[in-house]
Amino acid sequence: MTTAAIIVAAGRGQRAGGDIPKQWQMLAGRPVADHALTAFAGMQRVLVIHPEDRARADGLGVELVMGGATRTASVRAALEALAGRGIAHVLIHDAARPLVPAAVIDRVLAALAQYPGAAPALPVSDALWTGEGGLVTGTRDRDGLYRAQTPQGFHFDAILAAYRAFAGEAADDVAVARAFGLNVAIVAGDEANLKLTYPGDFARAVAILKGHPMDVRIGNGFDVHAFCPGDHVWLCGVRVPHSKGLFGHSDADVAMHALTDAIYGALAEGDIGQHFPPSDPEWKGVASRIFLADAAGRIAARGLRLANADVTLICERPRIGPHATAMREVLAAILAVDPDRISVKATTSERLGFTGREEGIAAMATATLVSA
Ligand code: MG
What we know:
The protein is an alpha/beta fold. It has 2 domains: 3-211, Alpha-Beta Complex (Spore Coat Polysaccharide Biosynthesis Protein SpsA, Chain A); 216-371, CATH 3.30.1330.50. Helices cover 30% and strands 30% of the residues. It has 12 helices and 19 strands. It has helices spanning 32-38, 54-58, 71-82, 102-111, 156-165, 173-179, 199-211, 254-267, 272-275, 289-301, 324-335, 353-356, and strands at 3-9, 26-27, 30-31, 44-49, 63-66, 89-94, 117-123, 128-132, 135-140, 146-148, 152-155, 184-188, 216-229, 232-235, 238-241, 244-246, 304-314, 342-347, 360-371. Strands 1, 4, 5, 6, 7, 10, 11 and 12 form an 8-stranded mixed beta sheet that branches. It has a 5-stranded mixed beta sheet with strand order 16-13-19-17-18. It has a two-stranded antiparallel sheet with strand order 2-3. The protein is elongated. The chain starts with a strand and ends with a strand. Magnesium ion (MG) binds at residues 223, 225, 248, 254, 257.
């Protein structure tokens, strides 16, 4: 079942202070909107932006929709952009809530099995007053009152119809859904799912981020290529002169393939053959750096970074040592990390087995990814 996420980032809100809208201010080294996008990785994502923010959004690698004059118009534009794509469920989320926990998203999606709409909220726990001129003028019953959060989730066709039928401006998507007669279930929100509104909220968000347990993901990769007639081999992106070549569909860079698979493995996103099928003539003879660059892009898209990688080549010849430094530098450049996070080393198999008989080269790799 296809789920889409609409991240609404078109507002101009200035209450948070700063020279630029809050969703484009930096939080722990990344724009607020980028944090929000990461929370919905793996879904079809649409980012709704103000046309003035195009340059800020272009680098995020997601589909952009230009917002309208109001939030209601912006969401409607995004829903229309997604219409006809076979989407079953849509989550509509404010970019100003960058720390939405995965459990909140899961609860909204789970409720959509039973209801056409679902949204997270927290019961009001403080006493409620009315006031005027600095004096309390009355109290209000807080029973049955909730603080609404996002993402607000809906059956796609139902919320699209609700938006098409709605005239005027609504506070949120739940209001549009209810005006159309849709039932919206309340699921448990989370205090960490705060909306950045005032300058002090950024400090709170940073404190919450620091309290997050670090995500650590380790992957391994293994690859073998057979020797064939030739005068050089490509290993870790370095051309190494040799009395043979390596046979393969691409440039047969066995070490880069093992490392690429280690990263796909850490992400649990398949393997190199799945992303670049050998049956596809497009990848014939290509430089393997294309594969590694794809894996590197997926690390960033998931809000992770490469902490280190370790590559071991298994062969009697050619000798790897004289090229190891150049190899580390090439890999580090593709992965956009410091070379001291990349290890390239080699071993022989004591003349045993296919590597010992010099029939081919084997490579293994380990990659560690951590929260960005
Ligand atoms: Mg290979």
